[in-house]
Automatic annotation (TrEMBL):
Name of the protein described by the UniProt record: 16S rRNA (uracil(1498)-N(3))-methyltransferase
InterPro entries in the cross-refs: Alpha/beta_knot_MTases, PUA-like_sf, RsmE, RsmE_MTase_dom, RsmE_PUA-like, tRNA_m1G_MTases_N
Main location: cytoplasm
GO molecular-function terms, A-Z: rRNA (uridine-N3-)-methyltransferase activity
Domain Ribosomal RNA small subunit methyltransferase E methyltransferase: 75-229
Function: Specifically methylates the N3 position of the uracil ring of uridine 1498 (m3U1498) in 16S rRNA. Acts on the fully assembled 30S ribosomal subunit.
GO cellular component, one term: cytoplasm
Catalyzed reactions per annotation: uridine(1498) in 16S rRNA + S-adenosyl-L-methionine = N(3)-methyluridine(1498) in 16S rRNA + S-adenosyl-L-homocysteine + H(+)
Any one of the GO BP annotations: rRNA base methylation
EC number: 2.1.1.193
Family note: Belongs to the RNA methyltransferase RsmE family.
Pfam families named in the record: Methyltrans_RNA, PUA_4
Organism of derivation: freshwater metagenome
Taxon lineage: unclassified sequences, metagenomes, ecological metagenomes
Amino acid sequence: MLTLFFVEDLPIQIGQIYEFDNEDAQHAVRVLRMSAGEIFMLADGTGAWSQVKAFAVKKKSIEVEVMMSGFQEALPTTITVVQALPKSDRSKEAIELLTEAGVDRIVPWAAARSIGKGSDKFAVTAREASKQSRRLRIPEVTDVATTEQICEAIKLSDLALVFHESAAVKLSDCVSSHNVAHLLIIIGPEGGITQSELDAFTSAGAKVALMGRPILRSAHAGIAAVAAVSALLKVW
């Protein structure tokens, strides 16, 4: 698959000459050492893309010609993952994994037992992970949300799932329909979701599900949940 970079002013006209000159371009020149004749992808992060060919490589930029362009429609199911904040390094890992899993929206959650803090670098992490995983749509990373805000999001979703080791119902038994436009998945902190948080979520309409027997790290549970639910909903 072709290397992907993001630009704000995406060129889309066939034959158009474009000066690729942002930080991604500098990375392409200095680190990837791209040369004239190489073909790669440019995208705007919201679905639009162009395949381009380099014809003049400069010190900090590359002149390219647009060969073809298009637009990738969003999938019918929008996936939002609420991720309780783990330690800083694991927060970054969680953002990367959720991005690679294909989620549309990531909501950092200040749970009662969270030990991590929010960061304005989360959006950068999602952008970089999108390039790495060759996805054309960069997921939205919101500001840190409270439990009350998560409850409001639950009410607006078609299906909200919160994973907890005390659940008596398997995940596969919680998904009864494939017609889910707005899916919400809630992942708790390393110390676990408190009973009061769990009660608040279920009162708002969330289903409590069990994700197998092993207890996953908070940063890893999200990608496992997204994979399982995506298969059950036939998103994958």
